[in-house]
Amino acid sequence: MRLTVAQALVRFLTLQSVERDGERHRFFAGCSGIFGHGNVAGVGQALLESGDDLRYHLARNEQAMVHTAVGFARMSDRLRAIACTTSVGPGATNMVTGAAVATTNRIPVLLLPGDVFATRRANPVLQELEDPASLDVSANDCLRPVSRYFDRIWRPEQLPQALLHAMRVLTDPAETGAVTLALPEDVQTEAFDVPDDLLVERVWHIRRPPPEIQLVEGLATRLRRSKRPLIVAGGGVIYSGATDVLRAFVDATGVPVAETQAGKGSLRFDHPASLGALGATGTPTANDVARSADLVIGIGTRWSDFTTASYSVFQSPDVDVVNINITPFDTTKLAGAPIVADARVALEALLERLSDWHVDDAYAHEYQTGAARWNEMVEQAYNLGHEPLPGQSEVIGAVEASTTDRDVVVCAAGSLPGDLHKLWRTRDPKGYHVEYAYSCMGYEIAGGLGVKMAAPDREVYVMVGDGSYLMMNSELVTALAEGIKLIVVLVVNDGFQSIGALSESVGVERFGTQYRFRGAFGQLDGDRLPVDLALNAESLGASVIRVDSIAQLRDALVMARKRTNSTVIRIHTDPLVAAPDSLSWWDVPVAEVSTRVSTAKALDTYENDRRQQRDYLRPTTLAEGGQDRPS
Ligand SMILES: Cc1ncc(C[n+]2csc(CCOP(=O)(O)OP(=O)(O)O)c2C)c(N)n1
Ligand SMILES: [Mg+2]
Q: What is the pLDDT of residues 479-508, one digit of tens each?
């Protein structure tokens, strides 16, 4: 069959399915795009011909478009994806940040940027970078380090192999992330004889590699000796669909579970073994248990510095760490004993060997008392009654109270993710969606759109700060155009208040973090800016409800639920009302010399705090039935 490269590509995408546990469905749910000369005649023409076989979604910003694809794929447990097509040059490089979000979060997205002419017929094409040292380089090369697979299709004959490798990476739970196929604009439209076997239905099996049995036995033996074991559940628990077996495991054994940002939802908040969030944005209860843990089992976590409280969260000098992860790269972190395996299969194997064992009652009693105390603190934080402006924790409480178990909260950057990590009460494995690997301002609305596309039967609550909203609100228009409903809670506090608080703690006095006019002395500390983001949202076509109190917020949330279209609820909060302390730490280095008292003071505190930092280099091995080392 003679097809253009773009037509062959689009047809190929419509023919890919994935299968896991015997369930099979199409992998690509659609293709988002913004057209320019670099893709309109190639991929654009092919999408036009394919009609609804690969539904096209018009995005408003290429970075946002990738966020939407990430939100969609994450909500689909990485079993479905959206392709993204752009023009050459700025359209393509706009995707770099989105690609980094996908790759850091290990979420599959297929990026199809246009590229410079392969034939170089009329160099330089509009928006060509022109590296004087090599015409082989194009702006798209900056997508290489943020892609798990990158290829450029200089000739049509290269397409089949590139497509197979793209699918291999996208559907491999250990390898996945952004995949980029850069498509020179002349090659996209070039016709070639497509091999018959390329365009047949293809089913990609999503693997569940089992753990090595002797390692599971070693871990079981080690657990039986443990007095204070702790499970740290990461995103892998959720993507693997391991939440049911995790619950069965902790029901049987009483090992408590603390959660990372991506792993939040692994266990219902009110489960007796749930400690909630761990680390720098964690609960004091989880951090307290972690401090004295003697055995830590990380499952599906990449151990970000927020989770480890910058290598300070575990303080026992004899703590053993075991990492169950499908990604080998993550399994040796913290010098842990590696168990390369699917989370669900590994937990099943472990449960089989430990169903007769339970942690000491005293330990269970201790952490359950801590969890109950924390739940009271959450209740208080939800109901501060702060005047005249409410605290952010009260906004979170009101939103949480208005949700049902299956609704989803979406967030990414600012002070909301930390507060949500601590305070949100997750009741469903997919109910909490905070992008915190790249913590990318602007992900919120765009990512929320992808979440809703993946789960149209759930209400999606996007919680977004004024900074993030201002940076990227474009996909509200896409949501409206597509009739996809979001409930956006816009928290206005006149600037980058999370960074303001951080700034203060490192002796930088909130410098450059407030939305203010330039003042009399040349600093940005003048009057508040008259920016009206509610009007902005209205101008984009959203229904907007302005509220001035928590009581009004509650009413607005009821109204927004009843509506069929997207609503933005705008509320002002007091940035100086902090959520309860995590009693934990985050390593942000302070200037070692300065002329400011505030900085010198911060340095003192920093140097003192750094003493909690450990190196986590002590080896843990599980070979030989758990006799990890000679005593
Ligand atoms: C794209 C991007 N730029 C910069 C940052 C650094 N940063 C993290 S939070 C933040 C401020 C966010 O402001 P806002 O959304 O208003 O939330 P608030 O801090 O006020 O809660 C900044 C600048 C980031 N995470 N992402
Ligand atoms: Mg703000």
A: 999 999 999 999 999 999 999 999 999 999
